[in-house]
Amino acid sequence: MAGTLYIVGTPLGNLEDVTRRAERVLREADFIACEDTRRTGKLIELLGIPKRPLLSCHEHNEAERVPEIVGRLQAGESAALVSDAGMPLTSDPGFLLVRAAAEAGLTVTPIPGPTAVSAAVAASGLPASQYRFCGFLPAKSGRRRKALEELTREDVALVFYEAPHRIRKTLADALDVLGDRPAVLAREMTKLHEEFLRGTLSTILAEIESRENVRGEMTLVVGPSEEQAPTEQSPLDERVAELIASGVARMDSLKQAARERGISKREAYRLLEDGSD
Fold first, then answer.
1. Which of 73, 95, 136, 234 has the most C-beta neighbours closer than 10 Å?
2. 231: in domain
């Protein structure tokens, strides 16, 4: 009889977040497929689970591991698939394995657990009954800005993962492309130094820029643009003309007027071209 592939959610940081079911599956599975055997080995140890067979399965070797793991499942073994933290396949490897197991007719069972996406959205205080999870933005600014521009017309909250060494540039690009929307930056959720920076993209960027070092896992929630739009404003073309008259360059005037309205510079330019506000 073929075995089962369990997709197991593990704690983001706080070990108390592990479910009883997840702990049982990790204890009983024939082997555990994981991103980093050292990190998962430490988790197993901290949970008090006897040493388990660990098999590395990460973004650089997943394609090579799939035939081996599927073969073992077909032979009757059961496997637990875990990521370094949170729910596997949420910006983590595992898609190739899960797809191959499903196509082979094997049983694939999710063991729900913590995810940074849902945790950040729940604690954000932003209107997010609907949201779009965008994962990690491209590392290079040009591609990152292009990806953000494709999101300018989304009328739901946007959720991003980001690395600490890129967070300043990502916030700056998001501010420039999306406009000064309400936002929350969640850092080190469930861990000792958990922090939520709340405000707008501009205020959060200012706070991050004021810090010498920024560390930890980061999840950025950006609210819909209409939440930032003032109820009463002068027409866009009048505001741009006013700024130009005060000595601000035309493109900088357009950018500032866009930020004041919580829209992107591209959208502001389109509105001016259309002759509407």
1. 73
2. no
